[in-house]
Amino acid sequence: MQPWSAPRNPAPSTLPGKSPLPQVFDTSRGALTEVGSSSAASMYVCGITPYDATHMGHAATYVAFDLLNRVWRDAGATVRYVQNVTDVDDPLLERATATGEPWEQLAHKEIQLFHDDMTALRVLPPDEYVGVVESIPLIADHVDRLRQSGVGYDVDGDVYFAAGAAENFGSVSHYDRATMLELFAERGGDPDRAGKKDPLDWLLWRAGRPGEPAWDAPVGRGRPGWHVECSTIATTYIGSSIDVQGGGRDLIFPHHEMCAAEVTAATGNRFADAFMHAGMVGYDGEKMSKSRGNLVFVSRLRADGADPMAIRLALLDHQYRRDWEWTPAALAAATDRLNRWRSAVSRPSGPDGAALLAGVRRHLAADLDAPAALREVDAWASSDGGDEASPALVRSFADALLGIDLRAD
Ligand code: 5CA
Ligand code: ZN
Hints:
The chain is of the alpha/beta class. It has helices at about 55-75, 90-100, 105-120, 135-150, 175-185, 225-235, 250-265, 300-305, 310-315, 330-345, 355-365, 370-380, 390-400, and strands at about 25, 30-35, 40-45, 80-85, 130, 150-155, 160, 200-205, 220-225, 240-250, 270-280, 280-285, 285, 325. The strands form 4 sheets. It has a 5-stranded parallel β-sheet with strand order 5-4-3-10-11, sandwiched between helices. The model has no long low-confidence stretch (mean pLDDT about 95). Bound molecules: 5'-O-(N-(L-cysteinyl)-sulfamoyl)adenosine and zinc ion. Zinc ion binds near residues 46, 84 and 255.
């Protein structure tokens, strides 16, 4: 599948100096760790399930990983970035059934809208953007191998992964069993399915049911379970050891735990060096989610006239790991900030831009502390100085590092 189109983006090599390699919080270690190297870095970021439009929570998560991508590039690394799209799964099929729209059409429409939002927010596209439907043979093959190796087993034609067979199960989330059972039930799992060895065993392959899409495969006619799509796509398009697997905090368990168990069962490798998780964005006191219906859509804000760069600045004003609440006031404040920055880079001169660049790099490399970086730019914009090269330099790294285009529209 084609990803969204790339925003014009200054090559980091045009900036003087380099970013340090980033330190990020790895959920599995429970600590900060340096990720990537100065020559190469790889990340797999879990993509959308396209049954509704991109909301501010999704946007915040993809902007967070976009910052990591930009820091790596600025550090000199060639970045391999892969993202999936869950274009067949229960929530999508349920929504299509409820609205009477063909599921393929619903997915297509929402993917298009997501792409437009990502382009508007100047999120750099992944190198490979891979749908589940186009990957069915690869995924089915992976399921078949897991089954033949003994970690996968059949229950009435469906195939399940035996959690007890995975030595590393629990090593991503470190949750206790009661928490695992609760989250598994909440987030697409089926702890009560009869015939499983353990309630936490998860679906690898769902045999075709009447009225559901299904594909012929060596494991039988059916469709993939959720987790195995990501473990297959990531290992196929990057490899069995990647630097970062990313997503929102709601993916720690079961999704990233189960992906990691699948990869280790298939290859013996630790899947990701770091498992990074963005905080949850809420609205009106609750996590913003399609199922709760309390959504603020990026496309709605854009249609109402919000400058996408102000939306991006509003997102960047929160360190990615914290939970936060979206408010209309945040957008108004970000619009003011954008205007202040735009006037500041239009001045004939400004204070030392190289010092500001060093500060922004230092903050971003410290677990993507964008709010601290923004405050430094604020201070620069509100002070005077006599360096004529500085406004152009700031305009250029605001674009390359923060993804903020300061050209007036
Ligand atoms: N397709 C799967 C991943 S393989 C999926 O979770 N899709 S999703 O559309 O539900 O979410 C896409 C991404 O947005 C995930 O990384 C998810 O963790 C993140 N996300 C969802 N809701 C929020 C929220 N309220 N705040 C922050 N991130 C969120
Ligand atoms: Zn995923």
